[in-house]
Amino acid sequence: MIYRLLAKFNDDFGLFVFFLYLAAFILAFLMVFIFPPGALALMLLGLIGFVGVWLIVVIMRFFERILARKALGDDRCPCCTVASALVVTPSKEWDSVVCCDGCGQLFESGGRRIQAEDEEEDDPEDDL
Ligand SMILES: [Zn+2]
What percent of the chain has pLDDT over 70? Predict the structure, then answer.
């Protein structure tokens, strides 16, 4: 449950930050005419905010991987919590890839979720 919330957060956080900065840009643009120092302050705040955003991304992905490794170690899928449905295959890119039969989600041995497109890119037969 916590893992799924964390995974959803990590998936949507980039878009959230994009809209936050878009809103800040519009606000700063309007401030140029009303209160010019405010626009400068917003710009500096936005630049400093990048460090905070980066820290949040690193920390939240770190916790997501810890939870995923813990669940995979217990032989259950972190996404759908289906037991005994994991298929482990060796991979040339990662040590091993764990695939869930229940939801089809792929994980690398470090706990990172692998998007299905990443795997298909390796397959040259898809181009035909
Ligand atoms: Zn699953």
Answer: 83
In order of 18, 22, 40, 79, the CA distances from 31 in angstroms are: 20, 14, 9, 45
pLDDT digits (tens, 9 = 90+) for 40-82: 999 999 999 999 999 999 999 999 999 988 888 888 888 887 6
Domain boundaries, the chain: 1-74, 75-128
Global confidence as pTM: 0.73
**Centroid of ligand 1 to alpha carbon of 19 (angstroms):** 31
Give me ligand 1 centre to Cα 106, in Å: 9
Distance 122 CA to ligand 1 centre (A): 23
Q: Near ion ligand 1, which residues have CB within 5 Å?
A: 77, 79-80, 100, 102-103
